[in-house]
């Protein structure tokens, strides 16, 4: 089962690169060593889950590797060679001495690239199997998470299989012409499904190692899902992974507070905080470590954000109408999916201040009545917060900021309450736009 989301949300949260060269959350998490692992990581991050057992299964594997500080070096070139070898269209070599000698002599007289690819593929496969055997050698199958236990058993079934004894004999560093034919026949004819299964597990193993590595390097935490739809939300020490030296914050929503109203001046940190919270929720549903110290949340059926909503010029929509349509679309999704996590950043910025005030107030009060979903709504129109103070089901968070003369001071710390600062005019004055206009007039 897949968590409901959409391309707007993926774009808002910067899950994948939007332009060539741009850093994304995928890049931050990608420590995979193989092409197959990278492709699988992309697929997993593009399909967050809505199945608690599947999510916890992933978390359990990654946490085991993390807790036990386990790593396994995988050789991309070796695995590429094995993949290429298994996909060869060349006829499978025949397992008899005469054909083996013929193939060897034919290649000796006129070197055959496909024969070379078979030899190289066999060599790289043997090396990869040695590597996996060494990793699992001292791990007890009874203590391993299911996936790793199954992987160990499958790898050891190759090691212990009579047909592979000679192939896995380390004393034979180089295969002779008889063995080349015999093992090509064995692997591409008799045991191809087994080898393909090991490769498939290798790429998944690569992803899990990648997640444990990045969690270790970046100080990421592991999400804890509460199997209760009425449970609150608690995220401690959350941060945005793409910001250098980020300020960490905490957020707690009690079970009777399903809407968080976030206020603050321009540039105080509202959008970054909402993106960070959205990322924690998204990545938790992928079953990956999150950019936070600790996290407890219920399982959601959908995650939708409206942070960087573009104008729909091709459809002839104004920015305001695009906002209204987006809110309606998400409301319909809530009606369908029931339990949804929603983020609205700076609602109704596409209209005048009076309409933005009234519309934000109306929509916030409306969503506060939907107790099965969770909402984060931000604004710099602080008067809306004052009007909402008496409403039930809303908690208020803010980013405080200050000015000392012409200098603006932001600490980017999320606090309880409603922001009271107005720094928009100070920001405008600090850019000396009027002075520049005066200079233009003086020089005319």
Protein described:
The protein has helices at 7-12, 25-29, 35-45, 52-67, 76-86, 97-109, 113-136, 146-160, 177-190, 192-218, 270-286, 319-337, 353-368, 382-388, 424-430, 433-443, and strands at residues 223-226, 233-238, 249-253, 259-264, 294-298, 302-306, 340-345, 374-379, 394-404, 407-416. Strand 7 (340-345), helix 13 (353-368) and strand 8 form a beta-alpha-beta unit. By secondary structure, the chain is of the alpha/beta class. The chain has two domains: 31-218, MutS, DNA mismatch repair protein, Chain A, domain 3 (Orthogonal Bundle); 223-443, Rossmann fold (3-Layer(aba) Sandwich), CATH 3.40.50. Helix 13 (353-368) runs parallel beside helix 14 (382-388).
Q: Which term fits the overall shape? A: elongated
Mean of all residue-level pLDDT scores: 88
- Which structural class do you get from the secondary structure elements? alpha/beta
Tell me the span between the first and last alpha carbons. 67 Å
Count of discrete domains:
2
Count, helices: 16
Going across the biggest sheet, name each strand in turn: 6-7-8-4-9-10
CATH class of the largest domain: Alpha Beta
**Record field, number of beta strands:** 10
**Secondary-structure element order, N to C:** HHHHHHHHHHEEEEHEEHEHEHEEHH
Judging by the overall fold, what is the CATH architecture of the largest domain?
3-Layer(aba) Sandwich
Largest sheet: 6 strands, mixed
If you compute it from the alpha carbons, what radius of gyration comes out, rounded to the nearest whole angstrom?
Answer: 29 Å
Outline the low-pLDDT stretches. none
